Amino acid sequence: MADATDVPAHIPAETESAGTAVVEHQQASSTVSLDHPVPSSHPPGTARIKTQFLVSRPHKRPITAEQDPATADAEFEESHESKRARVHNDGAPAAADAGARKSRAPKRGGQNKNRARTRAQDEINLCSGIAVSGTCSHGDGCRFSHDVAAYLAAKEPDLGATCPVFELFGRCRFGIKCRFAGAHTAADGSQIVDAIKVAEAGEYGPFLNSYTRDWQKIVRSRNLPTPKSDLYFKWLEVAKARRVELHDGVYKAATIKQTDVQTPAATIENETGMPAAAAKIEPPISDQPAVVAADDEAKSLNSDKAAAAAAAIKKTEEKKQKAAARQKILDELPHDPATLRFRCDEKPRLNFRGKTYLAPLTTVGNLPFRRICKDYGVDITCGEMAMCTTLLQGQQSEWALTRRHASEDIFGVQIAGANVRSVLTTCELINTMKLNVDFVDLNLGCPVDAICQKGSGAALLDGGGSKLFDICAGATYVLEHIPFTVKIRMGVHTAKPIAEKLVPRFAEAGVSMVSLHGRSKEQRYTKYANWDYIYGIGKNLRDANSNMTFFGNGDVLSHDDYWRHLDTAAVDGCMIGRGALIKPWIFNEIKERRVWDISSSERFDMLKKFANYGLEYWGSDTQGVHTTRRFLLEMQSFTHRYIPVGLLEVLPQKMNERPPPFVGRDELETLMASPDSEDWVKITERILGKTPESFKFVPKHKSNSYDTQEYQG
């Protein structure tokens, strides 16, 4: 549990009295107050809040009709992933993409797709070399300012007396550009260095999987050897051709058999009207001389026919040689000779039974947020989804999604790709570069149209299990000792779930773990997750004595939800996504099997800790502060949905129930529950100082941000 002593020293604590805080906020905030009490009513889909905390809507700022949380989450995901998909094309033809756009059904509005982002920069762009050491290696050719006096005169005041970067690394790489520069700048303007901390922290400190520009150039040059992937591609090409031959042979045999059944000999009549079986099959007597003449002619084959026969013999021999060469390639890798499927059943399996798992979450599942969840006791964490094609291009921002904090003791990276080659090459690259990961997860559950239209995400579920088997089996092979896992949905179409057919195939392909979201791609986040369907598949795995780890996913928002699912013995654990975004302390509740009525001050301490982690990771200069603020606001687009335990008539809070307007037990609790993004900005100003005049944070949706939709899981 957080308390005042847990808060980093450079983040200013709340010093005003409760009365002062109330007065200040009543003057500045537009959130609801107790001036408008309303009678209790509980329409469907609405959380049951005690009557004394219910209020009518405020009139100062009209709020348009809210969406339900499920639709909100879908739109949040769509808004983020659509942009990524435009950049990270997994090789799909542009024409196909254009066709998909034309045929796509029109969607209702609600997203701020064209929202502008505020550019964060100092008024004077000071040279980084001058800021840190007072010297510049570019000399007169430098494009940035060297006027330190002018920069300091225009610079905003420091945000605190302690620099998080300096405290972590022993020196600050931003020098006087740091928003906490006074903490490490001597009287003469030079930068202070703590040699002991520098030696302890090293170049990257606790941030693992950091990459140099030289490494990035190697990846972009495509000069990294991928022998395992190359061998598998060669094997798969031969195996696919042989599968077609086997399929055609079976099809022809079945066709002949079906023809025999449909036209039995007894029903076929000859010209005399007699059944063909009863008629003698011999030529009429008058035709015998012609047959003898034909036999004589056949015995006198000319030289051309003899040559043709020899060529046919040679062609047959060449076919035999090609068949032998193909068989030699097939024999290079273990496979089932009957199905020509790769066999990789010797892969060590994961033992995650009973461990809590924070789902990979796009944008909001960043490294500082994962650290917050680690503080609350989560066992397993996974990086944000990274696109295979972009990783193979060496794009730095995409590889940054694979970074790991030292506190993440069980950590995986999640990738998404549309074909065997991109997924396997990425996996082998991860293995070759000795990335510090405990598993690699393939995203087969992303429902966002922009991703699925490229053939990635949930789109891979549609089209049978053959391609999926080849991808998963190949990935387990090239990753060697690194376990390979998948995250899936029930299927693409709600009426046609296919997960029960795919999960056993994953086990055959050597997949170490499957996480199943109890919704289809069509459903997105509407209605409740179908845990009965998840239980059924888990029971089938138990009955088959499968040792593949199996997790369920969907709507876990309390320790009661978590342990109820585990008590069925059908799943090994639960992956938690939105539940952790709304209340990151859910992992503490699960570990201690309790309902935590967390106070507003404890929640505020959590936000301050996130800010500290963000400054360590993204930097303590103006850009780093801006990035930290933006992700803190993204975090609040989910945490504001939390309904304090003491306000609920019925426990626990349900995922897709929207609360009616209410006030909290103190002014800070009320402010934290506001769906107004301007109130979220006010909270960040208490932590990171005033925002620039040009700063704007536009929520993902035009109605309000209760409906934010995008986090990927």
TrEMBL record:
Tell me its EC number(s), please.
1.3.1.89
Q: Which residues form the signal peptide?
A: none
Where are the annotated C3H1-type zinc-finger regions? Answer: 126-149, 162-187
- Output one GO MF annotation: flavin adenine dinucleotide binding
- Where is composition skewed (Basic and acidic residues) in this entry? 77-89
Q: Which reaction does it catalyse?
A: 5,6-dihydrouridine(47) in tRNA + NADP(+) = uridine(47) in tRNA + NADPH + H(+); 5,6-dihydrouridine(47) in tRNA + NAD(+) = uridine(47) in tRNA + NADH + H(+); a 5,6-dihydrouridine in mRNA + NADP(+) = a uridine in mRNA + NADPH + H(+); a 5,6-dihydrouridine in mRNA + NAD(+) = a uridine in mRNA + NADH + H(+)
The cross-references to Pfam families, in alphabetical order and at most eight, read:
Dus, zf-CCCH_DUS3L
* Stretches assigned to the C3H1-type domain: 126-149, 162-187
Is NADP set as a keyword in this record?
yes
For this protein, the record's PANTHER family field holds: TRNA-DIHYDROURIDINE(47) SYNTHASE [NAD(P)(+)]-LIKE
- The name of this protein is tRNA-dihydrouridine(47) synthase [NAD(P)(+)]
